[in-house]
Amino acid sequence: MEITRAWIHAHASPRGGFTRAQLAAIGVDWPPARGWVQRCEGRTVTPEARAVFENRAPARDALTVATAGPMVISPSITMTTTRRSVIARLDPAQLEALQRIRSAEGVPVSEQIRRGVDLWLASAAARNVGVVVKDKAAPRRVSPRRKA
Q1: What are residue 131's DSSP bridge partners?
Q2: Domain ranges of the chain
């Protein structure tokens, strides 16, 4: 298949971006340099690379969804070292609702799941289950040095 500007933009994220895996599939280095779309126009792409770019094939750092049985989500690798990747099984209706919220409000599915887990942990702490929840809203303040 020949790459066109329309095809590239048809497979952008809702906010107009592309993943590293998508760009690698069509031979674009990360981070993409200015003018990468024009340089890609007219190139041919393999069916496998086309599937990755169109987000139809699982890629290492893309959200992977299994089609049989309950949905399986593998969150993408984050840049922070404090977060860990997990696998969560969701009903198809749950995943579809999360994706609609992502499209409407721009909140990534993984962030929605984190917020839901935070609410669940807060309710468990309120029920005195022995769960301690750290307050993210209040940043720690360094106490001023005392003068001698």
Answers
A1: none
A2: 1-60, 63-133
Q: Which of 104, 100, 68, 73 is nearest to 86 (CA)?
A: 73
Strand partners, 73: 65, 88
Mean predicted lDDT score pLDDT of the chain: 77
* Contacts with 46 (C-beta within 8 Å, 6 or more apart), sequence order: none
34 Cβ contact list (under 8 Å, min separation 6): none
pLDDT of the residue at 6: 92
Find tokens 């500007």 and name the residue.
5
Question: Tokens 């599937």 identify what position?
Answer: 51
Banded model confidence at residue 138, pLDDT cuts 50, 70, 90? low
d(CA 147, CA 9): 60
Tell me which long-range contacts 74-79 makes (C-beta under 8 A, separation of at least 24): 75/110, 75/113, 76/110
Peptide bond before 31: cis, by omega within 30 degrees of 0?
yes
